Amino acid sequence: MAIYTRTGDQGETSVIGGRVGKDDVRVEAYGTIDELNCFVGQARSLMVDEKFADVREQLLEIQHELFDCGSDLAFVKLSEGKYKVKSEMAERLEGWIDTLQAENPQLERFILPGGSELSSVVHVCRTVCRRAERRAVTLGRSADINPQAVIYLNRLSDYFFALARTANTRSGIADVEYVRSKKVFRN
């Protein structure tokens, strides 16, 4: 089977229920989720140490859910009963966030992306996730979408923030504080 179809040579692509320009906001939204999924895969590939086995499995589940999220956004018309992203997915992320946060030292200042290589890659996941969320919100202003997809992406970026910090904590590396910040977080 050939992977090229030539159907997109004129700048259009197929979505579920029609064809749109490759620069359509719908394509931008699920394309950014696809980009995020690649970075999540990169983060997983850096988790060779057994101390990351739990989050490695979480990230695999997230990769599947990102496919679900992209699929939900690819539908031009979809009845609500067919959506794949459900509220339980964001709720589960909240539990994972709480568990990760319990490992991390208390924040006093804003932090910069960095520390370990893994933490840096997870921070890239966080920022690409935020962009995917913005693209989904933009799409939602002009089309009906699964609102749970936006909620999921919002919670997922919080998960990546907590995970980036945990990656440093488990590696024995301190977060990089933004030294020009006053102490903004209180117990």
Automatic annotation (TrEMBL):
Single GO biological process annotation from the record: cobalamin biosynthetic process
Catalytic reaction list: 2 cob(II)alamin + reduced [electron-transfer flavoprotein] + 2 ATP = 2 adenosylcob(III)alamin + 2 triphosphate + oxidized [electron-transfer flavoprotein] + 3 H(+); 2 cob(II)yrinate a,c diamide + reduced [electron-transfer flavoprotein] + 2 ATP = 2 adenosylcob(III)yrinate a,c-diamide + 2 triphosphate + oxidized [electron-transfer flavoprotein] + 3 H(+)
Q: Which UniProt keywords apply?
A: ATP-binding, Cobalamin biosynthesis, Nucleotide-binding, Transferase
The organism's place on the tree of life at top rank: Bacteria
User: InterPro entries in the record, alphabetically?
Assistant: CblAdoTrfase-like (IPR016030), CblAdoTrfase-like_sf (IPR036451), PduO-typ (IPR029499)
- Keyword ATP-binding, does the record have it? yes
Q: Which Pfam families does its entry note?
A: Cob_adeno_trans
Q: In which pathway does it act?
A: Cofactor biosynthesis; adenosylcobalamin biosynthesis; adenosylcobalamin from cob(II)yrinate a,c-diamide: step 2/7
Instruction: Name the Enzyme Commission number(s) assigned to this protein.
Output: 2.5.1.17
Q: Where is the Cobalamin adenosyltransferase-like domain?
A: 3-167
The Gene Ontology terms for molecular function here are: ATP binding; corrinoid adenosyltransferase activity
Q: Does the keyword ATP-binding apply?
A: yes
Signal peptide boundaries: none
Q: What protein family does this chain belong to?
A: Belongs to the Cob(I)alamin adenosyltransferase family.
Q: Which NCBIfam families match?
A: PduO_Nterm
Q: Report quaternary structure and partners.
A: Homotrimer.
* PANTHER family named among the record's database cross-references: CORRINOID ADENOSYLTRANSFERASE, CORRINOID ADENOSYLTRANSFERASE MMAB
Give the protein name, as stated in the record: Corrinoid adenosyltransferase
